[in-house]
């Protein structure tokens, strides 16, 4: 029984060393090709991550920012949902499919009434593609 345990341990050690040896022999070019493929993955993008309104007047009324979403994939995509972190921000977005190479829009409208001071609101854009979620911000200061 003791001999079987020693043989089992020895077999596991030999297998582990053999596996590590094979990894060491992967050609450098192969790992670089994998890296290039990963970097060139086609994705949905947005033109900016933050829109800074600067200083806005509380009594001036609602302000809006437009984020342009580009479909860099090979298939139509859909913006399935857009949510803001607060009821003071209302999102509106392109509801029709966005064809490859085309753009859609997400409009975030902020209501500054009764909200003096700095603000930074997060808008989450959900897609049926990669990435499945994009996050953008609107920020500024209400006087």
Structural description of this entry:
The structure is a single chain. The chain has 143 residues and is α+β, with helices and mostly antiparallel strands. It has 2 domains: 2-39; 44-142, Immunoglobulin-like. It has 2 helices and 8 strands; from the N terminus they run ααββββββββ. The strands form 2 sheets. Strands 1-3-6-5 form a 4-stranded antiparallel β-sheet, with no helix packed on it. A 4-stranded mixed β-sheet has the order 2-8-7-4, with no helix packed on it. Strand 7 (117-127) and strand 8 form a beta hairpin. Mean pLDDT is 83; it is low at 20-26 and 30-40.
Q: In CATH terms, what is the architecture of the largest domain?
A: Sandwich
Query: What's the arrangement of strands in the largest beta sheet?
Result: 1-3-6-5
Estimated share of beta-strand residues: 35-45%
Main β sheet profile: 4 strands, antiparallel
- List unreliable stretches of 5+ residues: 20-26, 30-40
CATH class of the largest domain: Mainly Beta
Helix content class:
10-25%
For the secondary structure, the number of strands is: 8
Order of helices and strands: HHEEEEEEEE
Radius of gyration: 26 Å
CATH topology name of the largest domain, in short, is Immunoglobulin-like
Count of helical stretches: 2
Write down the overall mean pLDDT. 83
Briefly characterize the structure:
The protein is of the alpha+beta class. The chain has 2 helices and 8 strands.
């Amino acid at each position: 029984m003791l001999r079987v345990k020693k043989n089992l341990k020895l077999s596991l050690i030999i297998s582990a060393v053999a596996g590590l040896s094979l990894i060491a022999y992967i050609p450098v070019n192969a790992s670089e090709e994998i890296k290039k493929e990963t970097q060139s993955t086609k994705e949905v993008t947005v033109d900016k991550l933050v829109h800074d309104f600067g200083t806005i007047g509380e009594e001036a009324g609602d302000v809006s920012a437009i984020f342009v979403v580009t479909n860099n994939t090979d298939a139509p995509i859909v913006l399935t949902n857009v949510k803001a972190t607060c009821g003071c921000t209302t999102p509106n977005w392109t509801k029709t499919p966005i064809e490859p190479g085309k753009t859609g829009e997400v409009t975030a409208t902020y209501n500054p009434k009764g909200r003096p001071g700095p603000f930074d609101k997060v808008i989450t854009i959900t897609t049926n593609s990669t990435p499945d979620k994009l996050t953008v911000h609107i920020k500024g200061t209400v006087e």
